Amino acid sequence: MGFSRDESFYFRYSESYQHWFTRVGEQFFGDAKHNALGKKEVTQSWGQNSEHPPLMKVLFGFSWRWFGKKLRNVETIRRTAHDDNVARIRVKNVSPSDGFKKGDQVQILGPQLVNNKASDARKHLGWATVDKRVGNAVELVAKGVNPDSLKAACTEPRTSNRLEPHPWITGCQAATTSTLHFMRESTAMRFPAWVMAGILIALIFLLATLWFGPWVGLFAALTFLFIPRHFFHAHLCTFDTAVTTMIVAVIYAFWRSLKSRKWVFICSILWGLALLTKLNAFFIPIPLVAWWLITVPPQWRIEKRERTRVRNTAIHGTWALITLFSFLWMGSMTAACALLCWGTVAGVRIKLQPIPQAFLWMPPIGISMLFLLWPLLWYDSAESFTNYLSFHLNHIHYLQQYFGEILAVPPFPLSFPFTMTALTVPVVLLVLFGLGVVTLYFTERAEVASNIRWMILLNLIFSMLLIAMPETPIFGGIKHWLASMVFFALIAGYGFNWLRKQLLTRLPNKMPVAVIGSLMLAALFLGSSVSDSLQYRLFGTSYYNEIAGGVRGARDNGMHRQFWGYSGRYALDYLNKNAPRGSHVAFHNTTWDAVTWYQRDGLLRHDLRWRRDPPRFCQPGTFYVFHYQKSFAQDQLNAWTNMGSWVPDNIISVDGVPMLSIYSCKGRDKT
Questions:
Q1: What would the DSSP string read from start to end of 102-147?
Q2: SS3 323
Q3: Nearest to 94 by CA among 68, 64, 78, 72
Q4: Does residue 306 surpass a pLDDT of 70?
Q5: How far is CA 294 from its chain centroid?
Q6: 584-586 and 623-627: which strand pairing?
Q7: Of 335 and 44, which is predicted with more confidence?
Q8: Exposed (0-12), middle (13-18) or buried (19+): which is 206, by Cβ within 10 Å?
Q9: For a tag on the chain, would you pick the N or C end, based on fewer CB atoms within 10 A?
């Protein structure tokens, strides 16, 4: 899968945070004299990407640091003065978090050829030991290696034709040799997201099993995973699946806390971790409080007071005017307070039922965890926290294409999350969801406790309603209401189980027959979803169901066919084989960070240079990778002019719908 824009930024900042952790370790366990815990260093390090809490970026970074195999480019090779069989090797662009500590043994690898995959074994040229660090480079000593032979193996082949593609993806590299370093660097970055996705699937199973039994749990968990867009997002180094995991974990723990004091504290700690994951966590208590007020309603009573009719009229008239004026001049919140005071004066008394203990412990534990475990909030806490909230309250709006309309500024359509769900979930799962709604809330409602039905309903609609609000930014496809889709999956699982029980009444009442029949039925209903998830795994945001007419129908109806710039990954093979040495490639919606990590992973030639847009007057050897989105239409027109041709050299498509076009410079008339 290609690297999305957000991923590329998280790669950078996760690595940057690790540099801070390295400095902390050096301060306490080494000879370093810097103050890594001081305001200056903390602010410089954690002020980067401060719009998101740190938990997942810290996990991404530690996973990269512990499990990622670091390959860094050899810069120079020279012989030592006293021994012809000892080579001194300089390796560049080595950060303190990369490893390569003094005394470490590293492997010297030969060049990676263009025709070889990054996963292919490379020629072993020898072993070396880290001798010293010089700035962002390290000096290696390789004994028993002929420096001249090593230098010859690592010297780039020359050519007189400057338009000839380079035969190497990368030259010689030094590789860390720790046993734990068994993943590519990007894979190690993504690994915590995969773990969180696995935990989410397990939590869905546990929650659904707790309420409805294992068959609902199994089907609900697989339903959520194999909705094609969910499957795609579960693989990315982002926060959306992770915060959904935390939301479901808090809900599960809250439910258990109603009968166990131990789970009260687990719930509170989980909410703290959720707050450290993403802003969405602040909204978790809202449907829980609504559930409590609905399922355990307060008791109302009105105290009769001996008052004359004139006095009653005067009192109520006065408070009616106060409430009206409050609404007109001070807003709805002040008017609501005035209304409550009016009710109190009128003798209205409300008796609340016992408050769940989790509500009392979640704020002090959760908020304390947020401020204690996010270094950004250690200094100038109020200002930093205000800036964090302000970023999201004033979030920019990215252009979206919705049935041929360009949505650029609010108000946005109320229908957006509901329509997108209907168009991006496999149809068979929509049918099972509908069956689940009918059986759970109508035909079999007496068989399920009302508090369970309300918990599912409130959490199903809450995230969607937030996105449906006209002022809420709507970029990101369906990923911002993944929490709602968990409960969509639960209801679909309930519908499946109802159908399963109806069909099993026609089979012999024997355990093996029932189990095999149930598994076959689940496979029947999930088969197309699994197939679509695998088919669209590389272009997950392009998936649309049969109602939309697939990606072709979505294109014809004026819907977003992709976003995030990840599809630039699928232009790399063509560029590696066709771009002349040292070419500038305008990667358009693929970020500089993403390109840098493609080069780290051995997916893109190291001699190719990134730029965002093609130059006005291009030179031979310039390439442009255009990403198809309606909001980029002007970019395409400019490219046709600047590149001297409207005919692309290569097109990457999904079901016949173009996702990328690769243009090479044909020249243009400078007059």
A1: TT-EEEEE-PEETTS-TTS---EEEEEEEEEEETTEEEEEEET--H
A2: helix
A3: 72
A4: no
A5: 33
A6: parallel
A7: 44
A8: middle
A9: C
CATH architecture of 73-156+163-182: Beta Barrel (2.40)
For Cα atoms 424, 425, 429, give the angle at the middle one, nearest 5 degrees. Answer: 165
**DSSP symbols for 435-494:** HHHHIIIIITGGGS-HHHHHHHHHHHHHHHHHHHSTTS---STTGGGHHHHHHHHHHHHH
Give pLDDT, residue 671. Answer: 42
Q: How confident is the model at residue 312 (pLDDT cuts 50, 70, 90)?
A: confident
Q: What is the pLDDT of residue 670?
A: 47
For residue 160, give both structure tokens: 């007189």
Are 348 and 298 in contact, with CB atoms under 8 Å apart?
no
Amino acid in position 576 = N
- Per the document, the length of the chain is 671
366 SS3 class:
helix
Query: Are the C-beta atoms of residues 627 and 660 closer than 8 Å to each other?
Result: yes
Which pTM does this prediction carry?
0.91
Give pLDDT, residue 103.
94
Beta strands in 511-590 (DSSP E): 584-586
Domain positions in the chain: 73-156+163-182, 189-294+363-535, 299-351, 566-664
Strands 112-113 and 105-109: unpaired
3-state secondary structure of 639: helix
